[in-house]
Amino acid sequence: MAKCNYCGKKGFFLKLNNSGMCSECEQLFITEEYFQKIVNLYNKICCEVTFEEGISLEDLLSLLDGRVSKCNDLKILLNSCNQYPKLHEVLSKHAVRDSNSQYGRIPEINLFVWFDSNGLRKTVVSDLLDYPDRLIRDIGCMKRRFRKKFEFQNIIDEMEAVPIVPVPSKKIRFKVSDLSEIKYTSITSRSNYERLGTFTVVDVETTGLNCQKSKLIEVSAVYFEHWKPVKYFSTLIDPESSIPEEITELTGINNETVKGSPTFSSIVIGLMDFIGNTNIVGHNLEFDLKFLYRNGINFLSHKRKYYDTLKIAKTVLKRGDSLNSDVSDYKLTTLCDYYDIRDNDSAHRSLSDALSTGLLFKNLADEKINS
Description:
It is built from eleven helices and twelve strands. By secondary structure, the protein is of the alpha/beta class.
């Protein structure tokens, strides 16, 4: 009596191949090999693309175009799936169901799948056939993201970087309560667009939210003239204390990163000279002002206007989850996405945030005054 070496099935008329495998197991084995071809091609399409220093945008786009070509190869491979009647069974074997849920995933190809009372839904095969087009759309989004990353970096490269010259100085601590007299200026349809276009954006990264206890770890200021970013002042700061892990996760700044950086007190004079008597712009500006003022930057020494893009955005864009809403929230990253200002991979670093806040201010002014 013949016996399959794989499933153990027995029968007088059971046909086995040269490997001692019945036809059912042979079909499964062939289909599993087919699935592994899909996985191998998927891995070539989705291997990580990194933004390496020195690589050109043209090279990156060419690399991504190569991924699109492989997506078309995957289409051709998948179009032969009807030759593999055991494909659903193989996909079911690889599918991982979320606990207490009808949803799951085939992790080898990161394909989102559905389950019903009978197991993996039959529609998974048609979902798989649609997968290359979805990957092509994802690559298109990646190309747009890299273009935006290069454009944003080019803006930074074209600005003048003001040298940071630390000057040993005694720490100055102002009372944050003094800032209560600051009034934030709004933008209306009658605002003078040209006058608005010259200002300095400030942004800080800190070890926490409390300006009395937390420390500065990075500070940047970007000077805009006639709506064009002209120069910037940016430096990491030695907080003279340990940086919490959650801050490192958010900003990428750790204790080693700030090693050898100037203390804030040593760059106060340089930063004050850079800001001068210009109007000041920031996103959730009160947060930045509190930290800077508390640590010795006396904004009140000059008469100036203060513009908070967080407050202004609330007068320009509608927040909510409906189709009539503009944005889901007023975070800087969300607003940058809305106006296509930058790729948010560089968010939570003060120079990137300061520059994007200035560009956001321009977009909001355009909508408020020029629309």
